[in-house]
C-alpha cells in the first residue's frame, strides 16, 4: 500500500492533465492507493495512455475490485473519457457527480471546461447550457474567459444584439478586454451598426501592443475597420487603419491590397500601384495576392498604360492557369485517400485522443493549399475522430488475432480435460475413502481399549512378542517344573527374564501409545485432507464443464462482436473520410472558383483592351484611307 | 469601378467576419459533423465495453483466480533511485525482465502502479527474487535485490515490489510485501 503524493481531491490534481483549470485549486493531500488495480489505471493515465487506462478501470469496476476508490474511480473515468474525446459520456458522469458536489467552485470550473470543449466541437447548444449551469464562483480570469465564450456563442448563433449587450458592458483592462472589443466590433458590424463599430475598432487599432498576440489583434482590428470604411465609401478614412497594419504578418497582404484600393478610390492610381506591386512578389496562394495581379493591370489601364496592362493580364491568366492545375492535382490527391495515411503516420498506435493534433504539417504540394483548412476546428476535430477510429480498428484487429488463439487454447484445454476425466474417475473408483476412515476409527477404539486395560503386551514388537511366547512356553515346560536344583535355577532365570521383559514393555508402553496415537492423528489429518481433495475434485468435475461452457460462450460470442464492430468501424471511417475529403475538396474548389472568376475578369479586361486597340487601329486605318 | 467592387466585396466580408468564404462553406456543415461525431462517440463506447469484456476474458482464461499471482512495482518518492529495470525470478527461474521508459518512471513517481508480471503458481511456498537496476544517489549505477518467500493459497495473490526512500540513510529501500 502506497503513501503517495498524489492528490486525494480527485477532481483537482489527479485530473490535472485533463482538467488544467481544476488543478489550480488542488491541495497536496496524500492519497493511499489501496487497490493495486486502481494504481495500475493511474500508471496508464499518467502516461496519457487513456484507452488502456479506461479499459482497466472499466474491468476493475466490473469485477468490483475498486472497493476503496469508488468515488475517485468515477471521477477519474469521467476525466479520462474527456481526454479520450468521449465527451458525451464524460458529461453524463460529471452531471451526475456534480449534482452532489457541494463545492460550487469545483462545479463551476467543471461546467466551464465542458463548455469550452463543446464550443470547440461545435456543440453550441450544449456549450451554452453548460455555461448557464455556472454560478459566480470562478476566479476572475476564468470568469472573463467564460463570458467571452458566451459572447462568441451568441455571435456564432447569429444573436448579434445579445452579443453586443454582453460585450458592451465589458469592464477591466485584462488581455480579454482587447478580444471583447474586437468581438463587439464584429457583432456591431454584423448587426448593421458600422458607425459604432468603427469607433471601437479604431480604439483597438490604435493601442500599443505588448506582445505578438495583441499585435495580431491590433492588425486584425485595423484591417476590419479599414475594409468597413472602404465598403462604406470612405477610402480616405480607410487608409489610416490599413496603414497601421504591420508590413509583415498574417494580415499584411490584405492590408496592402486595401491601401491600394483606397488610393484607387481616390483616383490616385500611381500610389495604388505601389502596394499592389509589392504584393505581386508574394505567395500567389493568398487571395489578396491573386487580386493584386488583377488590380495592377486595372490601375495601369486607368493610367493609360494599355500595353503594360495587357502584359500583366496575360501574366495573371497564365499564373492562375498553373495554380488551377496544381489545385486539380491536389483535389485528386485528396480524393485518393492518401492524405489520411500521410497525416496519421505519426504515432498511429498512440491513444492520446482529445489532446492530439498535428504537430507539424507534413510537407507536400497539398499542404500549402490546405493549410487554412487544417487550422479549422471542423477539420481538426474530424481528423481527430478519424484517427481515433483508426486506433479502434487496429485495436480490434489485434483482439481478433488473440481471440483466435484463445479459441484454440480453449479447445485444447477441453480436449485435455475430457481425456483426463475417465482416468480420474477410474482412480477415484478404486479408492474408497470411507473404508479408510472406518478402519482408522477401529484403530482408535482398539488403542483406547489397550490404554484402558493397560495391555502393555499389545504394544510389544514382533520380536518381543515372540520372546515373551518363548519365555512363557519355557515357564510351563515339564523340564522347568522338575523338582531338582537345576530346574529351580532355570525357573529363577526364566522368572528373571520374564520380569525384565515385562518391565521393559511396561516402561515403553506410554511412549509407544503416544507414538501410535500420533500416527493415528496424522493419518486422520491425511484422511481429512484426502476428503477435502476429493470434494475439490468432485466440485471441479461439476463446475469445470460449466466454466468451459461459460468460456466457450464468451470466446465464441466475442469473435462475432468484434467482426460486427469492425464492419461498423469501417463504415464510420468511410463516412468520416468522405466528410473530411468533402470539406477539403470544397475548400480547394472554392479556391479554384475564385481563380476562375479572376481569370474570367482578366480575359474580359484583355478582350476590352484588344477591342479598344482594334477599334483604334481601324479608325487609324480609316483615317489613313480617307487621306 | 464596378469590377473593382465585385473583387473587393468578398474579401472585405471575409476579413470582417474573420473567416474565409471557403472556410465558411466547410464550417457550414456542423450538423453533418455532429451526426458523425455522435456516431464516433457511440462506437467508442461500444469498443471500450468490448475491450473490457475481452480484457476480462483474457485474464480469466490465462490466469485463473485459483492460481493467479500478480506482481506490482511501485515507487514512493524516488529521490534516491532512478529506476531502469526490474528482473524477477520465481523459484530460481527468471520470469520477467522489464525495462522502464522515462514516461513510465514518471507515471510510477506520480502514483501509478505497474503490473510487471502475472503468473500461475501452485498452492504452497514460493521464493521470489527481485533485482532492481538503476541509478542510485549521486547518479551512480545501482543494483539491489530483494527476496521473499510467500505462500500461495487458493485465490488470487498480489505482491508489491515497493521502492521507497530511506531519508535517514539517504538511500533507496526495496521491499517486497503482500498487497493486503
Q: What is the mean predicted local confidence, pLDDT of chain B?
A: 84
Order of helices and strands of chain B: HHHEEEHEEEEE
Structural class of chain A: mainly alpha
Please identify the top-level CATH class of the largest domain in chain B: Mainly Beta
> Which segments of chain B are poorly predicted (pLDDT under 50) over 5 or more consecutive residues?
1-10, 12-28
- Termini Cα gap of chain B: 86 Å
Tell me which protein chains meet in the greatest interface and how many residues each side has. Answer: A-B, 98 and 70 residues
Number of helices of chain A: 24
Radius of gyration of chain A: 47 Å
Q: What is the distance, rounded to the nearest whole angstrom, between the alpha carbons of the first and last residues of chain A?
A: 114 Å
Number of helices of chain B: 4
Helix content of chain B: 25-40%
Strand order of the largest sheet of chain A: 1-2
Largest sheet of chain A: 2 strands, antiparallel
Mean pLDDT of chain A: 85
Q: What best-fitting shape of chain A do the alpha-carbon axes yield?
A: elongated
User: Radius of gyration of chain B in whole Å, from Cα?
Assistant: 28 Å
Order of helices and strands of chain A: EHEHHHHHHHHHHHHHHHHHHHHHHH
Estimate the global geometry of chain B from the Cα principal axes: flat
